[in-house]
Amino acid sequence: MSCFVSKNSIVRKIWGKSDTVLFIFAGASAEFALNKAVDWLYYTGKLPSDPIGRLFSTVTYARRIIFSNESEALKAIDTMRLIHSDVENSRGSLIPDWAYRNVLFMLIHYSIASFELLERELTVDEKHEVYNVFYRVGDRMGLKVLPPAYEEWISVRLVHLKEDLAKSEYTDDLFLQYKKHLGVVRFKVLLEAQKLVVPNIVRDLLQFNSISWLKPVVPFYKFSRMLRFDDMIKKLLLPKAYMKQIKELDVH
After folding, report:
1. Do 234 and 244 form a contact (C-beta atoms < 8 A)?
2. Residues 56, 63, 215, 124: what is their CA dihedral angle, to the nearest 10 degrees?
3. Which one, out of 89, 95, 145, 207, has a CA that is 20 to 30 A from the CA of 221?
4. Strand partners, 3
């Protein structure tokens, strides 16, 4: 049976390394806190009670889609849509289509930004491939007004950033929850990682400065992977409760 994403696809390379996925996670956690529709996840109470687990859940679904055959991937997408439909029915209103698009757009942006930070610059064709994979996910979910190609997406993404993000009481509370669940040191590392991959609009809304002390550490970390010291670094910086899940992110 055919795979939803080709086995030699750049998308599998991006999502097959825990380092890259963790930076995707970091960037998305920053931008998601600014999403004007974040109150939907506060409605269920799951996000503030376990923000790390909730975001890992999103990552797990994305990886399940990317590394499954066509049938299993489509089933995962349908399940994801059904879960959101249940929340909509419970609240008695619909999640805005633009809110779904924003989450999809985050996965596209941070897939590219994280890989380029840790590995190399992607070619135009590879960026097209990243976009096309997530376009198919969005199309299966029934999202409307999806740009047909990567070039068109760039300008639409900018409009979304300008119109659909805002700092709110949910933003402040969510960052407090990150700090509570990660601890002070890990939380500071998260903030520095976020600075490296978020767009300027996100950085400005969160009042981040443009300098991250983590930036000069990245080349050292890349070198540490060659010496197989990266696992030790992850154990020092990441919550023990999630180490098993983090190790499972590496596809060998």
Report:
1. no
2. -150
3. 207
4. 69
